[in-house]
Amino acid sequence: FRVLALESSADDTCAAVVDASRRIWSNVVCRQNRLHEKTSGIHPLVALRAHQRNMPGAVRKALHDAKLEMADIDGVAFTRGPGITGCLTVASNAAKTLAAANNKPIVGVHHMQAHALTAHLTSSSPPSFPFLTLLVSGGHTMIVLATSLVDFRVLATTVDRSVGSTIDRVVTLLQIKWADLGPGPGLERYCAEPVADEGALENEPPITMSGKLSFSYTGLHSWVERTIHAAGGLDNVKKRAVARAFQNAAFAHLEEKLLLALKWCRNNDHPVRHVVVSGGVASNSLLRQRLKTCLSQSIYDPVDLVFPDPLLCTDNAVMIAWASMHRFLARDYDDYSIETLPTWSLEDLKNPPDPPAV
Ligand code: ATP
Ligand code: FE
After folding, report:
1. Quick one: which atom of ligand 1 is closest to the CA of 163?
2. Contact 158, 141 (CB under 8 A)
3. Angle at CA of residue 252, ends 250 and 257, nearest 5°
4. How confident is the model at residue 188 (pLDDT cuts 50, 70, 90)?
5. Which of 3, 32, 128, 328 has the highest CB neighbour number within 10 Å of its CB?
6. Cα 163 to ligand 1 centre (Å)
7. What is the pLDDT of residues 308-337, one digit of tens each?
8. How far is CA 271 from CA 130, 145, 264, in A?
9. Strands 131-136, 141-146: parallel, antiparallel or unpaired by DSSP?
10. Distance between CA 84 and CA 45 in Å, rounded?
11. φ, ψ dihedrals at 105, nearest 5°
C-alpha cells in the first residue's frame, strides 16, 4: 500500500511517498526559514501564503522523485491537526482534492502522533508498547506514554511555553544567526563552536518546577532577558556563555522530567523498555548525547533510547504517511468532508473534538 502524504501545519511545506513495507519513495521538504528569519519567527499569514505557493510543486516533486504517478498511489494522507489554523487547510484541501479527483481514500493524521511513531518507521528494532516518548518541538513539550498506535496518555506537558519556541525566542534575543535549517540548529552550531575564553556568569539559570511532572520555560527565557539587561548588552564572550548556559539548562529540565516520568511508570506498573525522543528539538546532537548519559546513569530499569534520523525529527510528510498506514490497511478512511483541527489533544485521537465554531 503506497501513501502520498502532505504536511503544512507550521512553517514547512512537505510531501512524501511511503509504502507499507516502510520504504520511503520520496521526501520533499520546502523550508520557509529565510522568510521567517526576517520576522524573527513564524508569521501565520506569511507561512500560509508560502504553503499556497509551494504545495503544488512539493506534490509534483514527491511523485517525480518516486518515479510514480497518481495512478500508483493507493491513499492520500494529510495533517489534520494540531497546527496553525490557515496553514493546516493547505495540505488538507490539496489532499482531499487530489484524492477525490483520483478516487483514492484519505486519512487525516494527528501531527504529534506522527512525531511519536516516526521511530517505528526508521528504527531497525521498533519500540515495543508501552513506550515513553519525549516530544520536543516548536508547539509542544510533552512526555507521553504510548500503549498502542492510537492510545496515548500525556504524563507531562508545559505550563507555559514549549522548549522549541523558547529556543527560537532566545536565539532572537541573543541575535544568533540562524543556520540553514532555522534558529534551533543556529543555537546548536553557535554553542558548539570552540572558544578561547569560556566566560563567566554572575547568575546561573533558574531551576523551575523542581520535582514536578510539568515543564516551564518562561523563567529561563526571563533569565536570558535579565542577564542581557543587567549587562547593558552582551560582548561576544558573555553572549556565548549565556547561550551555552541557556541550552544546557533547557536540556537539564528535559532530563529531570524524563527521570520523573520513568519513576512514575515504575510506580504505576507500566514497564517501559523504550524511550523515543522526537520533534524538531530532538535533532539536537547535544541533547541526544546528554540524554544517553543521563539514562545510562539512572537508577531505573534500563531503557533503550530511540532517536529517529534528525531529518525526520523536524517536520516532514514521511511521518504523516507512516502514521496513516495502519488506518489505510484497516480501511478506516476519513470522509472527503473532514475538517482540520487546530487544537487536538493526543489523548483524544479516537474521539476528535468538534472543529472550532466560526
Ligand atoms: P509541533 O510539532 O509542536 O506542531 P513544529 O511542527 O513547528 O511544532 P517541529 O518542526 O517539530 O515543530 O520543530 C521545530 C522546533 O525545533 C523549532 O523550535 C526549532 O528551532 C527546533 N529545532 C530544530 N532543530 C533544532 C536543533 N538542532 N536544536 C534545537 N532545536 C531545534
Ligand atoms: Fe512538528
Report:
1. 18
2. yes
3. 100
4. very high
5. 3
6. 9
7. 999 999 999 999 999 999 999 999 999 999
8. 7, 11, 10
9. antiparallel
10. 10
11. -75, 160
